[in-house]
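Onboarding guide, step 5: your first structure request.
Type a short instruction followed by the sequence, for example:

Predict the 3D structure of this protein.
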Amino acid sequence: MGKHAPKTPIRPVRGETILFFIAAIGVFALNMMLWGYDTPPLIDWPNHMARHVLQCGAVGAEHVARYYAFALEIAPNLTSDLIHTWPGACADLEVTQKVLIQVGSFGLFAATAVLHRTIWGTWSV
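The system replies with structure tokens like these:
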């Protein structure tokens, strides 16, 4: 019987790793553009802000309460609601929301990259 050379494990190509980090920097740069807006161009921004104004008891909460009701419940926005239970998050609602948007969008990129790495053993963009 002939001897076969042992199979070497697939290693990530150095170029792919560099491309991954370039893409990560690109996503980060796109996120930084959000800071140039006083009000980010999101359709549901007023809804989110109204919920957190009520939750934090911010100025104008009594007027917003006529149109919105707030309760902690298991819903897609529960993480944001739980973060706003901390007094520091209520100090500046708009900054907190901008940070949450950035963490979420970068998280989508990172989760996709880590899943690809886990399945295929290489970074990809």
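Each response can be followed by summary notes, for example: The chain has a mean pLDDT of 82.
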